[in-house]
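Researcher: Structure prediction, please.
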Amino acid sequence: MQKFKSVEELINQLKPEKPVYCIRKKSVLSASNFFQKNFPGEILYAVKTNPHPVVIKTLIESGINQFDVASVEEIKQVRKFSSSAKCSFMHTIKSPESIKRAYFEFGIKTFSLDTKEELIKIINNTDNAKDLELFVRIAVSNEHAEIDLSKKFGALNSEALGLLRLAKQYAKKVGLSFHVGSQCMHPISYAKGITEIGNIIKKTKIIPDYINVGGGFPSIYPDLVPDNLIAYFNEIKKSLENLKIENMPKIICEPGRALVAESGSTIVRVNLRKKQKLYINDGTYGTLFDAGTPNIVYPSKMIKENSSKIISKKMTAFSFFGPTCDSMDYMKGPFVLPNNIRENDYIELGQLGAYGLTFRTHFNGFYSDEVYEVEDDPIMSLYNRDINKAILVA
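Model: Predicted structure follows.
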């Protein structure tokens, strides 16, 4: 992979016609080291967030050797770089074929479920294996999340009681898990989830081998500045202590966005300006999906293409339109940029290490797979050396 010291160097050398995706290995390492140092348990990286080989390889090199996978293809992606890394199949709804392949072909022993039917499917398609680790995922409130997952996954508290008892009969080890939703903006959500787990433990008298607090740990965006991550970890630790379990289960989490969001950015070019509307060469059918319906506002920066170009100090709020002929290819923003931006100017959009690459399509023939490594800092960062504060780098 070609490497550049900065996005400015990249643009001035390549002057790309298509959108360009940038990866910052240093950002992956910073976030990984922070989680490993401060989270009170083990970290499983959620591969769905960004399965790019450079990201997976960098995480493994940083010391993360457990992965939350949702498909056989994601297992394969991890296995390219490590035959010993533990993959946990945490998708609660799986095909019989994928369970069978995961267990017999790739040696996956850990599976998640939220229904009796899924439990039976796992047992049948592993030929009644005696070495399974089964996680019962419970439904919890997603009220503080920007993207709600509670409508699709999780057993109700009343259902989880019977599921845990059943899973205990068939598993070598059992776990209880929950997910507070993507980009969770308040630590209290984790406390509520752990309280629900405590209620299940009290009613079933079953101490699980694992408690999985899931993902949802946030990154930083211009209009979404979360509390520092230490506050999230402290809330989790305090809530676990309140369970008053003599032999505490192993604690795990499944971060994705918080680990890799800062590591990626997309450089787009302006095709046309209509007043406060910028028509750009990437959009919601490309790396900018989350800027559409979820309306996540990415940090934005106009890139100085040459030394003679003057960038206005007057800032203006813009909305974006992508390159396709679909009117849904629209990003409300606001994206705040210099007032003198015009056609052919380049813009860097940050925090795209999370889901930017995975959501791309070939719709209308617009697709770019130009990926480069850059060594400069992200536009915004939650990680400032050992101090977990939200800072604007540029």
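Model: The first helix runs from residue 7 to 14.
Researcher: Thanks, that helps.
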